[in-house]
Design goal:
By secondary structure, the protein is of the alpha/beta class. The chain contains nine helices and eight strands. The chain has a single domain, classed as Alpha/Beta hydrolase fold, catalytic domain (Rossmann fold), CATH 3.40.50.1820. Strands 2-1-3-4-5-8 form a six-stranded parallel beta sheet, sandwiched between helices.
Length: about 280
């Protein structure tokens, strides 16, 4: 039966990333409202001391609460930034992977560290860790940051149990995935000045190297999922994207980047038959 509260559009569950907040969606929300897309904003700022499985379970409780509140029990779309994608995937693929009771049409991840984060691993490096954290202080990490006490960062290290759980579970075949990332192929330093436009990548031998196939924080290889084509957005000369400041394409600003938001809106407004 059609629910008039959500007529024509599926609700979008919005999941922010690590050390972030729901304010990152403040430019997307007016676009959702204009398109008559209900926004269910999952705020996990109060769960910063929890691990990813615990926060993932909270997503399930949140969505169920919204369903009971609105009377809508159909499919939803899930839009995530950064580690928020890992949290949502853990709920959908690990916690609910076998039962498939969470009705999700699609998951849209913006700059997600799906395979773990070299940056998180670097935080613990005895040689480079302190310097990396110091560079990011006040921009990407809070003042006085201690990674050893951060359960979420432990969970996004490439060798963590959470990353193994996600890899073992695999993607769901009953929903679509869209992974949107940015890059800096022209190697402009202003793309992400803290690392001279590059992104740290961890090689198979355990060494770290800079790459321009990333958004300053997450590399393309870290975002990749089996069978899912990465959607790579760059500010190529002569394109509409080139008129935007390069800094808007780095990891921190992805949820507010006009090009990224347009891509997200395109997926959310796909017509569905909900009669």
């Amino acid at each position: 039966m059609k629910n008039e509260k959500h007529s024509g559009r599926l609700p979008a569950v919005l999941v922010h990333g690590w050390n972030s907040h729901p304010g990152i969606w403040n430019r997307l929300l007016p676009l959702l409202k204009e398109a008559s897309i209900p926004a269910w904003i999952f705020d996990h700022t109060g769960l910063a001391d929890r691990n990813i499985p615990e926060i993932a379970a909270a997503i399930g409780d949140f969505v169920q609460g919204k369903r009971d509140e609105t009377g809508y029990y159909g499919d939803v779309d899930v839009v995530c930034h950064s580690v928020g994608t890992c949290i949502a995937r853990y709920y959908l693929e690990v916690i609910d992977g076998e039962r498939k009771t969470a009705r999700a049409r699609q998951l849209i991840g913006l700059g997600p560290p799906n395979n773990g984060s070299a940056m998180a691993e670097l935080f613990f490096d005895p040689v480079q860790g302190a310097e990396i954290i110091n560079r990011l202080m006040g921009v990407f990490v809070p003042p006085g940051y201690d990674p050893s006490a951060d359960r979420i960062v432990h969970d996004v290290r490439p060798g963590s149990r959470v990353m193994l759980d996600l890899k073992t579970a695999g993607i769901r075949q009953d929903m679509a995935y869209h992974i949107i990332v940015t890059g800096n192929p022209d190697e402009h330093p202003e793309f992400f000045p803290l690392f001279h436009g590059a992104t740290w990548e961890r090689g198979g031998d355990g060494s770290y190297r800079p790459t321009f196939h990333g958004d300053g924080v997450v590399t393309h290889s870290e975002s990749a999922l089996p069978g899912i084509t990465l959607e790579i957005i760059t500010a190529e000369p002569g394109t509409d994207e080139a008129i935007l400041p390069l800094g808007q394409f780095c990891h921190i600003h992805l949820p507010r980047n006009p090009v990224v938001m347009e891509r997200v809106l395109g997926y959310l407004t796909i017509t569905v038959d909900r009669t």
